[in-house]
């Protein structure tokens, strides 16, 4: 019998269910199985009609294997926080399928990534060209992360930092702040914690302040490093795209 299953990797946004796309909602409603980390599953539990399979952090590979197995016969969704392509489950699924040649039909349903939800809370810090970088060295050696950070700073991009810190990984944050200080100086850094979640916090700081008090940054935080054009005014950060050079208001 031909298989009827399909695997959806569904982005569920940064936290607030209002930021779930219509498509994500429909796919979750139609899924016979929904797999995900406990904290993400919690946010969409009331939408799902099929069976929910929860797992813990660190069990991603097992979760993907299970989802692929189920998707051979059933409509299956694997949920991913924010957008699945941005440090999410999409690449794990794609790599797994590519390397194991698993025969499964899969589709990624995009979601609102933390950057898109956080930048407007600061004002408009991401307006044009920017670089998105993760400080997690679980999959990539630190030397490569540092090289990319240096290049992005030298290129005068606004740099958006995901995975800035964790209990085991405060060192990378400190090293990154020292690189920023050296190349760009003590520039304003926009910080948003728990975007659209309980405990949402927004503030502006600097590399020196973070070095002196790294505890203020945790794993639920996203950072925006300003570039040479970024302005701080009235507690907001704006990186002009150039309209004011082109138009008289
Ligand atoms: N796929 C997710 C990113 C997962 S990586 C996305 O598209 O947003 C995990 C990192 O994302 C966290 O360490 C943090 O830097 C950032 N992040 C995810 N959700 C966040 C939120 N609600 N508030 C602040 N940062 C968040």
Summarize the topology.
Blueprint: E1 6-11, H1 22-30, E2 33-37, H2 38-44, E3 51-55, H3 60-71, E4 75-80, H4 89-100, E5 106-109, H5 114-122, E6 123-124, E7 130-134, H6 142-154, E8 158-162, H7 170-184, E9 189-193, E10 201-205, H8 207-212, E11 221-225, E12 231-233, E13 236-238, H9 243-246
Parallel strand pairs: 1-4, 1-5, 2-3, 2-4, 6-13, 7-8
Antiparallel strand pairs: 8-11, 9-10, 9-11, 12-13
The structure holds S-adenosyl-L-homocysteine.
What does this structure look like?
It contains nine helices and 13 strands. With 249 residues, the protein is α/β, with parallel strands linked by helices. The protein has a five-stranded parallel sheet with strand order 3-2-4-1-5, sandwiched between helices. A five-stranded mixed sheet has the order 7-8-11-9-10, with helices on both faces. β7 (130-134), α6 (142-154) and β8 (158-162) form a beta-alpha-beta unit. α3 crosses α4 (89-100) and α6 packs parallel to α7. The relative contact order is 0.14. S-adenosyl-L-homocysteine binds at residues 14-15, 80-83, 86-88, 113-114, 162-164, 192-197, 219-222. Residues 14-15, 80-83, 86-88, 113-114, 162-164, 192-197, 219-222 line the site of S-adenosyl-L-homocysteine (SAH).
């Amino acid at each position: 019998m031909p298989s009827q299953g399909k695997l959806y990797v569904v982005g569920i946004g940064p936290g607030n269910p209002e930021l779930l796309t219509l498509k994500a909602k429909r796919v979750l409603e139609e899924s016979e199985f929904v797999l995900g980390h406990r904290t993400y599953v919690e946010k969409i539990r009331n939408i799902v009609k099929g069976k929910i399979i929860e797992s813990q952090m660190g069990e991603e590979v097992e979760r993907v294997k299970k989802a692929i197995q189920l998707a051979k016969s059933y409509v299956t969704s694997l949920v991913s926080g924010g957008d699945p392509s941005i440090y999410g489950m999409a690449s794990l699924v794609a790599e797994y399928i590519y390397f194991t040649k698993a025969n499964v039909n899969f589709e990624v349903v995009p979601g609102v990534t933390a950057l898109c939800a956080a930048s407007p809370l600061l004002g408009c810090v991401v307006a044009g060209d920017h670089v998105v970088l993760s400080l997690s060295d679980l999959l990539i050696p630190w030397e490569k992360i540092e090289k990319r950070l240096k290049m992005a700073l030298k290129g005068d991009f606004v740099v958006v930092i995901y995975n800035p810190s964790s209990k085991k990984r405060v060192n990378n944050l400190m090293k990154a702040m020292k690189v920023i200080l050296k190349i760009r100086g003590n520039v304003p850094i926009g910080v948003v914690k728990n975007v659209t979640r309980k405990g949402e916090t927004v503030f502006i700081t600097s590399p020196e302040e973070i070095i002196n008090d790294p505890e203020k940054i945790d794993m639920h935080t996203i950072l925006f490093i300003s570039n040479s054009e970024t302005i701080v005014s009235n507690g907001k950060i704006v990186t002009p795209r150039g309209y004011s050079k082109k138009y008289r208001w």
